[in-house]
Amino acid sequence: MSAPASAASSQAATNNLEAFWMPFTANRQFKQAPRMFVSAKDMHYTTSDGRQVLDGTAGLWCCNAGHSRPKVVEAVQQQVAQLDYAPAFQMGHPKAFELAARLAAMMPSPLDHVFFTNSGSESVDTALKIALAYQRAIGQGTRTRLIGRERGYHGVGFGGISVGGIVNNRKHFGSMLTGVDHMRHTHDPDRNAFSRGMPESGAEYAEDLIRIIQLHDPSTIAAVIVEPVAGSTGVLIPPKGYLERLREICTQHGILLIFDEVITGFGRLGSPFAVDHFGVTPDLVTTAKGLTSGVVPMGAVFCTSDIYQAFMDGPAHMIELFHGYTYSAHPVACAAALGTLDTYEDEGLLTRAADLAGYWEDGLHSLKDCPNVIDIRNLGLIGAVELDPIAGEPTKRAFSAFLKSYDDGILIRTTGDIIALSPPLIITKGQIDELFGKLRTVLETID
Ligand code: PMP
After folding, report:
1. What cofactor(s) does the depicted protein rely on (predicted)?
2. I need a labelling partner for 59 at 20 to 30 A (CA). Which of 145, 222, 397, 424 fits?
3. Pairing mode, if any, of strands 44-47 and 382-387?
């Protein structure tokens, strides 16, 4: 009997790997030895050769509720059948309003308004645009400069790479947005290597902002954007007092503060958002990933009522913000997000990382004596193990660890020579032991 058409065409597709240009991937190397996931459930992926792989990274920092969770699957299936799409502009559908209200209620006031996007990159560009348009709306149109941070990752849109500070993501793409400055990052291994949780030293890195303000004058600066915990660059935990000081300086000089919570949002640190964890309230917050637990692409930007109100003060028949996406507040994404929030609530997942953080920290730091480990960093259910790069061959050692981990049944992520870990929030203590046990074997085996 011949295979069903869909199975046959999927087979045909995997026989030819050429057409798909994979993102952030060494395509030629991958296509010689492909790694394929064909299904996922809870904490595990299944590979095309039938092996189980423990997910140590929540996919790409996104599957916070674990994989293929029943409430999310059901919500998506029902929504596709009921209302597949509604125009995003000048039309609404109930789930968009329900979701926005629910999200606003989760976020501390005055971050009471939500603008929907389809990804972290879009959330970042949206937040930067809202910041610029807001300054103009309140008569501060000279405030056009944006400030990011070295080693920051804010997605891959032109706004995001402009304020971002990862050299490889910037250097190929021309001059990007003009009028952007960068503060230094806060990673200070001489003083803070192997810190557990927040490093004691380094709040003074926030004074970089003062230096930039003095150089340009506050009247030219619209907004500052930082990840509360820098993730994709290899997990940099903010020093104690640093975020508070940034907030203070921004407030003093009429500059908007944007937290990019694409990774830290939705329970990663043991509270719904980093805003709660650090007790620092920015003016705008970007999110994505955990919003739908990665099931359907979606992002959301939160802004304060002051910002929202500044746009609502014009004539009522006018469009207030000339910005949006065909798929903003897509009904299927809204349904996935609502199903995800139900799962988080039912299972207490948004605070679960707080209960596991100590166990996670001890397990992670137990790897300190493994070969080539030069730093370990952690907060909530996020962690990094930094390896000493091989001279002349940066990234090779960590990438070997990644490949060996995959063979040994754990999914880790690497950036440079740093191993980053951020498991789904449903991980058990036994699975934490398994993750670090296998990682120890990997680190002891690779060169
Ligand atoms: N901001 C941050 C802090 C991120 O970590 C990421 C993705 N890792 C993004 C933005 C971009 O998100 P996306 O890949 O969904 O565009």
Report:
1. pyridoxal 5'-phosphate
2. 397
3. unpaired
Q: For a ligand 1 pocket test, name from 232, 233, 273, 292 the mutation site with the most ligand atoms within 8 angstroms of its C-beta.
A: 232
Query: What does the pLDDT average to over 128-133?
Result: 98
Structure tokens that stand for 212 in this block: 């930039």
- Residues contacting residue 249 through CB under 8 Å, at least 6 positions apart: 206, 209, 210, 213, 255
Between CA 48 and CA 52 the distance in angstroms is 10
Q: Is 236 exposed, middle or buried (0-12, 13-18, 19+ CB in 10 A)?
A: buried
Q: How far apart are CA 446 and CA 439, in angstroms?
A: 11
CA of 433 to the centre of ligand 1 (A): 28
Which amino acid appears at position 39 of this protein? S
Cβ neighbors of 154 (< 8 A, separation 6 or more) are: 120, 121, 124, 148, 160, 161, 163, 164, 225, 227, 260, 286
213 ligand 1 Cβ < 6 A: no
What are the pLDDT digits (tens) for 217-234?
A: 999 999 999 999 999 999
Banded model confidence at residue 5, pLDDT cuts 50, 70, 90: very low
Q: Which atom of ligand 1 is nearest to the CA of 119?
A: 15
Angle at 17 between CA 14 and CA 23, to 5 degrees: 115
pLDDT at 106 over 70: yes
* Residue whose C-alpha is closest to residue 431's, from 58, 169, 155: 58
Q: Which of 61, 151, 154 to mutate to test the pocket of ligand 1 (most atoms within 8 A of CB)?
A: 154
Is the Cβ atom of 121 under 6 angstroms away from ligand 1?
yes
Distance (angstroms) between ligand 1 centre and the Cα of 120 equals 4
Mean pLDDT of 52-73: 98
Q: State the distance from the centre of ligand 1 to the C-alpha of 365, rounded, in angstroms.
A: 27
Q: Which domains does the chain have, with CATH numbers?
A: 35-64+350-445 (3.90.1150.10), 73-347 (3.40.640.10)
Secondary structure tally for the chain: helices H, strands E: 17, 15
Identify which of 256, 171, 158, 241 has the alpha carbon closest to the alpha carbon of residue 207: 241
Residue nearest ligand 1's atom 8 by CA? 232
**Do 205 and 186 contact (CB within 8 A), yes or no?**
yes
CA atoms of 98 and 93, how far apart (whole Å): 9
* Packed helices 120-137 and 305-312: angle between N→C axes, nearest 10 degrees: 60
